[in-house]
Amino acid sequence: MIQGTDKTEPARIMVIDDEAVICDACAQILTDEGYEVVTANNGIAGLEKMKGSKPDVVFVDLKMPGMGGLEVLDRIRGIDKNIVTVVITGYATIESAVDSMKHGALEFLPKPFTPEELAIITWRAVEKHRITVEAERLKNEKEHMRQNFISLVSHELRTPLVAVIQYLEVLSGGILGTMPPEQEKVITRMKIRLNELLLLVNRWLKFARIEETDVRDSFTKFNLKPVIEESLELVKPLAAEKKIELVSSAGADINTVFGDREMIKEVITNIMSNGIKYNHEGGRLSVETMQTADAVIIDITDTGIGIPDEELARVGDEFYRTKREGLAAGSGLGLAIAKKILDIHGGRLEIKSRLDLGSTFSIVLPKAREKNEIVSERSAS
Questions:
Q1: How do residues 207-245 score in pLDDT, each as one tens digit?
Q2: Strand runs (DSSP E) across the chain, as ranges?
Q3: What is the pLDDT of residues 151-184, one digit of tens each?
Q4: d(Cα 167, Cα 163) in Å, to the nearest integer?
Q5: Range of the domain at 110
Q6: This model's pTM is above 0.70
Q7: Does the residue 7 lie in any domain?
Q8: Partner of 113 for a Cys bridge, out of 20, 117, 166, 248, CB 3.0 to 4.6 A?
Q9: Cβ–Cβ < 8 Å for 103, 74
């Protein structure tokens, strides 16, 4: 018995062909191979039967009166994207084969075909269906685990952390009595470490939740120049501490982009902050903008420590930090969040760096388009 997705049942095959002799022959051959077979003599009847039989694989004749094979293929994808389709036709051409693949067909079986050819292609299609369904099951299971972990981190880890910090605030505030100076120092160090841990937890939760929130629904058109200026204002105190010179040549004629303004501001601010954090004292951070036919580019260049060539590919990976002695502490999540935000916006982050000479982080964003254009592109991918 050839098993379907449910290993206790045979794989279910449907044959849709206006020639009764083809349906009967395929049914006989595939039944002998151990499959459960349903046939239909036209596209409409096949689609109707599909609702009850729930096939794993469907063979579709390309040339049928009424609803043609290509339309049937499109309808099948709307019913269940996991159904594997195979085109059978007596009018085999390169063009018809390409059209079939474009409409989702896995295989192309020209008439006349032998029982062996039918059996081999059916086996491949059933295997494809099994692998596809299993991959989706694993993906759903992984997502379920991720959601459970987010909930665990949020409620079982973050909540007690906040409570402990509040208790320490009570102690350090002297509400329960005056403490000796040494004890106060210990309490202060504890609060610092716990707040760092809480910050890490909050950043990870933010990183994880970007995927589960459809932020594209709130996208609007906005100009980048004021966003860049606001980000520069935010990092000025940090730059002043390290005597970093801030230089901006962001043009007033920057095209608008389409997205979430605050998220893009977070990306720009994060990269500026890194450019200061990993810069040499007395160094420089410059911001320059440019445009191409379809994109706006923000170059943020620092004179800092740079990134080794062998580590460039991993910069921006979750929790990854450059392995350099004396670096300031960090979680490695900032750039990961930035890259995920840019991905949601159809943009990207490009990095060029020279060790001990500095780095340029290029934020590439598509120029403003309508929301449905971006959603359509991502759905197609």
A1: 676 765 567 777 889 988 999 999 999 999 999 999 999
A2: 12-16, 36-40, 57-61, 84-89, 105-110, 220-223, 245-249, 256-259, 284-291, 295-302, 348-354, 358-366
A3: 766 777 778 888 888 888 888 887 877 888 888 8
A4: 6
A5: 12-138
A6: no
A7: no
A8: 117
A9: yes
